Amino acid sequence: MSPHPKTLPPLSAEAETQPLPPDAVGLNADANPVLSVFDFDGTLTRHDSFVPFLKFAFGQRGFNQRILKLALPSLGYLTRRVDRDRLKAQLISTFLKGIEAAWLQQQAEAFCLKSWTRLMRPSGLQAVAGELRSGALVTLCSASPALVLQPFATRLGIRLIGTELEVVDGVLTGRIAGHNCRCENKVLRLESVYGPLNQYRLRAWGDTRGDRELLAAAQDAHWRHFHPAWRRGLGAR
């Protein structure tokens, strides 16, 4: 297998325990700095990216073999006997347990390269670029695995906060490290990296129930901002 291209690594758990110092975020006496936070799936993208990534990485046959094992948990989710976090944990375990982290990173690089044009919303890309030009701190904050999204964050030129996967000796255990990065955990993860959010002017973009707490914490909240107008009034999934 060819060497994996070097990319910016995802934020480690240790890194998240230390908020960024004031001089690292451009604090000054005149105004609070702007922190611009974008959800990824469905906000910057046209649809979910994780399941398409799994199809890409494992191939249609390998994907089908694994997805069949999730038939009962999926039925439990539809009948509300299994919650979203538990279903996601089972999805990750079924597909990623015993997989080398380096292989997953290589697949993520290839998936980003192949899917970028059809996956990303042009208006979302323009918004990210605009926030960067304005001097704001810009980050993705997503429930998708950070290992999978890192190539996208690198290409966008922004930081990444995502769901961390447990890795032991270079191999994925199939478990999430910490919590699924959605709902209140998005706010907690942001605070662990950037410190108290009240020191910023927080701008946030999201599109589902998992973004509600993030949007509620923001002074400038954007709900389905890049979606067609007819979809912006629909309720969260």
From TrEMBL:
Pfam families, per the entry: HAD
Disordered: region residues: 1-24
Source taxon at top rank: Bacteria
Gene3D superfamilies recorded: HAD superfamily/HAD-like (3.40.50.1000), SG protein - dephosphorylation function (1.20.1440.100)
Database matches in InterPro entries: HAD-like_sf, HAD_hydro_SerB1, HAD_sf
Keywords: Hydrolase
SUPFAM superfamilies associated with the record: HAD-like
Keyword Hydrolase applies: yes
GO molecular function, one term: hydrolase activity
Protein name per UniProt: HAD family hydrolase
Organism: Pseudomonas protegens
